[in-house]
């Protein structure tokens, strides 16, 4: 419906000679909005005020000229000038009737756009280190990323979803030695987990599943090292354990244990996310960047471009030449490449694979990461605008108004799985995205579990279930729902509440577009809550199953359209649409 008004405005502008040289489709597209109060019409345009200065005309006078050139349409009942020069459009009843019919006929396709661009988007999110289960903070990343992907799909973009598996580097070695310590600990009480090791119970579970034979030489080495550990800091100590494990077991055996441990955790993460309704097209291994030569190729390209230099035994990248605040080390003095080197190679690899636009979803503490990765992309011959980073703020759990500790005494974080088990997938998915990703989220556990109107996800699902209940009552009373009769008599929907619902339903395509373009799933969540409110108000004020078949079918048609939009919207959010509650 909004598109139809934009096209009418464009047609009017094209007929005004003074505006011909200033015309720009994007200006018209961004100059039409829904009104906040229906007393001012359904849509409003500030196009006259935008062009008043360049045409040297009073905005109201220019608005009057534009209105005279806007072609007549049976979708518009009245056009008027308001305030300093707004052009307000009052839609005809038939415009809304036409939209309700469209919802009924297109069903789950309503609001979705055809492929609007050949641009390929790679959406990378979660990408938590595979060193343990996902915690509640990761859950917000998962819900936001998955929902944004769904909305971008619905808006007509070509999107692939990727999880970057950080399976290289020191943290993987620490994971491996932590598992080895738990294996040795089973029969050797003298062995205890060091402070820098991974403490969670899941490490013991992995150790038990490996069922490795105890290596007596390794036990002696570890007991000896532990007796000497008082003189070392915890990081030096864990590094000495890693070296001893590699030397004693041999690198091949060490890597086998590491690979098995990593895959067990990665598989658990994948299963956890799958149960949460979050899936990925690819799981990209950081380790593959080195194995397949991508890192070496990247460093060679940067060297050929004279963008690397040596300093203090390390190799540095001239990041400041690409708007970063300082140059960055890519290879340390010990010849090991930094994480930043992998980041450059990884993002270059994304572009090489044919993706045009890269969206990274990261924690808010990664703000400083953006400039350096963008610098690496540009240095590799890509555009700075190819990379977009959406930051997700932290989550706090509240119970009965009191903030909850996010970790246990053993140091384990509250996991996503534990949260899902307590509040359910639907509430978790909705609560995670009902606030902007740029805002800190206070997650109210009691509210998420409550069956009340104050719980937004329950309130929306209840609207869907209520509509299903009305259709069951229709059958019980031996009436048949006739869609064609409903469409033929849609003009009988003339009450104020019916008009409000029709107006709300017609906004759905605009909300999808807005949510996609602003990367803002919370806009869709808010819209569904407002639509549910309109329906509950209509339900409490009206009788749907009346004797007159024309009125009955028209009203059933309207609530059927409402049910379809609620279902479509909840599906994009990854939330179910129950038929009874």
Can you put this structure into words, describing what you see?
This protein is α/β, with parallel strands linked by helices and 581 residues long. Among the domains are: 2-91, Arginyl tRNA synthetase N-terminal domain (Gyrase A, domain 2, 2-Layer Sandwich); 97-113 and 452-573, Isoleucyl-tRNA Synthetase, Domain 1, CATH 1.10.730.10; 170-249, no CATH class. The chain is 53% helix and 12% strand. The strands form 4 sheets. It has a 5-stranded parallel beta sheet, with helices on both faces. Strands 1-2-4-3 form a 4-stranded antiparallel beta sheet. A hairpin with a 3-residue loop joins strand 3 and strand 4. Helix 1 (2-14) packs across helix 4 (59-69). The chain is globular and about 90 Å long. The relative contact order is 0.10. The mean pLDDT is 93.
By CATH, the architecture of the domain at 97-113 and 452-573 is named: Orthogonal Bundle
The CATH homology group name of the domain at 97-113 and 452-573: Isoleucyl-tRNA Synthetase, Domain 1
Q: What is the helical fraction, as a range of percent?
A: 40-55%
Q: How do the strands of the widest beta sheet line up side by side?
A: 7-6-5-11-12
Mean of residue pLDDT values: 93
Structural class comes to: alpha/beta
State the distance separating the first and last CA atoms.
Answer: 34 Å
Largest sheet properties? 5 strands, parallel
CATH class category of the domain at 97-113 and 452-573: Mainly Alpha
Shape: globular
- Unreliable sequence segments: none
CA-atom Rg in angstroms: 30 Å
Number of strands: 15
Count up the helices: 24
**Strand fraction:** 5-15%
Q: Would you tell me which CATH topology of the domain at 97-113 and 452-573 applies?
A: Isoleucyl-tRNA Synthetase, Domain 1
